[in-house]
Give the backbone structure.
Amino acid sequence: MAYGDSESYENYRAAFLDWVYCGKPRTGVTYDIMRRTRSQFKLALRYCKQHADMLRADAHATALMSKDFNRFWENINKCNNDKIKKYTPVLDGCSGENE
């Protein structure tokens, strides 16, 4: 199973659609395949969520080692600016679009 790519999702999606096409059986081969691929996808997703910072740092290091400085600094800027909001949520004690 590869972490970080969409292979596990594609496998799960195909197995899920096959399972739905067969009438959503509760037993059998299609059910077993759907359950196994779903658990593999959830495992990969959980790994990515738990190791997001490490995966992001590895991507930055790869860009830096390949001497692609433009891509490196673009990624750094994206990571640093992801918490910035475009507009202030409160102005003169009023919040929301209507006020």
